[in-house]
Each structure stands twice: as structure tokens, then as C-alpha cells.
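Batch queue: ligand-bound targets. Current item pairs a single chain with fe (ii) ion. No template structures supplied; prediction is de novo from sequence plus SMILES. Inputs echoed for audit trail.
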Amino acid sequence: MELIDVCGGEVFITGQVGPDGDFAAATKDVASLVYLCKPQEGCLPDQAWESSSHKERVDLPLGPGLFEVRSALSAVDRINKMAKPILFMCKSANRAGAMASVFQGCRNGWSSEQTLEWAKPLGLKFLTMPPMVEWVSACVDSRFPKGGLIFRQLFEKESSTFTYILGDAETKQAVIIDPVDKTAERDSQMVTEMGLKPTLLLNTHVHADHITGTGKLKGLLPGGAKSGVSEASGGQADVKIHDGDKIRFGSRYLEARATPGHTAGCMTFVLDDKSACFTGDTLLVRGCGRTDFQGGSSETLYASVKGKIFTLPNDCTVYPGHDYQGRHSSTVGEEKAYNPRLTKPVEEFVSIMSNLNLPYPKQIDKAVPANMVCGICDEVEGGDKAEASV
Ligand SMILES: [Fe+2]
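Prediction returned. C-alpha cells below.
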């Protein structure tokens, strides 16, 4: 019977008691036992337990139907009061490793990422089991409940672009998605009046129809807000975003999902509770962005939407990068049912996209080079009505 030390002699994990029943000997230095098997699993025979020194014991039978976050958290409080060293035990050390990680994450006030980072070098086996990883993350994250969300959708009428402000109601930390240069002063004033402190100014992609406001806003906002765009876009920015990144503002975060197709570097930002996604031009209300410039690909866009957006809950609100017909948002469920392009088979979708016959975007030759450096360049002349990107 092997005990794995996961915390300087204070916390151990183990699998089933060995056939020689050496429970008492193997655990002689352990003060408490957290037993995670159901009685019928028979991992710890009564005899073995009786022969030990009657350590403090809590039974926390974890099975697929018993993985409730709330009960795990109350167990953490109880375990925390137990004498140390503590042994977490189950049949194969998976549940033991997961529960020990929840315990460590909660008592140290770690985020789910920090907890998993801690578990990795220990080689804990549950890390290879996605449902267990999710469970550990959910337990640790729910220890510190998410604060309220401040949310605004703003509109820039010349390019029909939506800008989004998301802030944590408690800490006032905020992010801005897809600001436009022409409305940078408006946005700066707005977040200042709201008492928000934007830390990151995000672009869903390098836009072809307007100049991003991220560069201008950096100069307008006190407090060192940074610009951000995906690494895959090739654009310059303070922060390069990658698939799977978590963009934190206070107790809230956005998950970055790479959704190439409209451009090669498009990102969709998904709110932590999956109640909203910010899709840029990847998915528009009843439409999608064109795929004939900037490394675009119809097949890739189709795969991105199906794999990274349509897999979100049906009631997840879709906030697009543009709308040209007065609509503001949609839901994943609605778009799955009614999007006239993305409800079609891929071959038909590709055919639709190659026959759009859209005009060359008027601003593209000025906007794209400017946006590759976060909008810091000579002002674009004129106020041409931008082409719809659909
Ligand atoms: Fe675009």
C-alpha cells in the first residue's frame, strides 16, 4: 500500500488497501482518514480499519451521482478541522487525488487553474479524466462565488459595430471588447463615469471595416489598460490571446475560443457561466462574416461555429460584432435553428459564401494595416459608410 505525499507530509493520497491488508502499518503516521469509496466497494475492510489506531475518519462516498459541488465544499470545512496528516483514500487514487486537490485549492484560496497547476507535477491520475477535472474546477471556483456583472452594449453607427463593456460589480475591473476609434472618447467617458477600471481592451479579430479603438483608448484611460488580440491574427498588441486563455476581470472571466474562418485569427469570448458569447464576425445574428479576405475560409468558419459556438448552451446569448438591421443579440439555440447559412450542410454553406458577390471593403486597405498595430496610425480619411461584412 503506497501513500503519495502531496503536501509536505500533511496530506497523502492512496488507492486500495493492498492484499496483505497492511492498512495499520502503512498509515501509522496518519492522523485522519477521508474515505471516498461507497461501502459496497469494500476497499477498506472493517477488519483493517479496526486494526488501525482508530484515527479520525470521515466517509465521503464519491460516485458519479454524488459529485455535488455543495456537499464537497461542506466536506472541505469538515476535513479542515481534522487532525493532520490526513490521508485521502479510494479504490484507484483518482477520487482521492481529486478530493485532495479540492481541499488544497479551497483552503489555499486558489483558482481552478492554480489548483490544476498544483496537481500536474504530482502526476495525479484524475487529471486525465475530464469529468473529474471539471468537478475539481467547479468546486474550487464556487468557493468564491462570482460577483455581479456590469454589462453594456454600445454601437458605432458608421461601421455598425458593437462594442461591449464587461465589468466586475465589486472590484470594478473591466474589459472592453471591440472598441472603435471613432467612439473611443465616448467609451472612455462612459467607463470613467461608471467607476470601471478596464485592464484589457480586446479585439475579436483584426477588423477590415473600421479602425479599432484599443490604441486610442490606451491613451485616454488612466491605469495602464492593455490591448489584446489573438496571436494567430499576427497583429501587434500588449497581450496575445490564445485558444483556452481565461481573461480575468475581478472574480469574472472570459474564455477565449479560437474561431477562425472570417479571418485566420478570429476569437470568440465566452463568459465564465456560459450565459453569453461575444462572437465578433464569426457568427452574426442570422448571418456570419465574409470569408474572402484575411486568411478567411468558409470550411473553417463552418467548423468553428459548429465546434466552438453551437456547442454552448442553447440559451447562451450571442452578442455579434455587427448588425446592419437593428438587431442586437440572439441565442445559440436561435442561430442553430434559424441561421440561414449555418443550418445548411457544409457544401451548401461553402457555395453560399462563394456566391455572395460582396464589394471590396472600402476601408480594408486602411483599416487592416492600422488594426495590425492596434489602431495607432494616421487617421483614416473621410467617413465612408463601411461595407457590411456579411
Ligand atoms: Fe470583420
